[in-house]
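Design job #97: recover the sequence.
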């Protein structure tokens, strides 16, 4: 059985945000673009929290 690490680093969350932003160029509808950008913002917020938990 493979163990997965539960806690990602701030950089890993930023990479997820970056992938969402890159995917915006490949989707066909405005709704999908908005959803991906919102998801990217969420990953950015999680990255900030991972980097500065007291904020």
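Job complete. Output follows.
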């Amino acid at each position: 059985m493979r163990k997965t690490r539960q806690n990602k680093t701030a950089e890993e969350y930023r990479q997820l945000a970056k992938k969402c932003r890159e995917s915006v160029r490949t989707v066909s509808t405005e709704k999908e673009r908005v959803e991906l950008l919102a998801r990217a913002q969420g990953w950015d917020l999680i990255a900030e929290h991972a980097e500065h938990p007291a904020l």
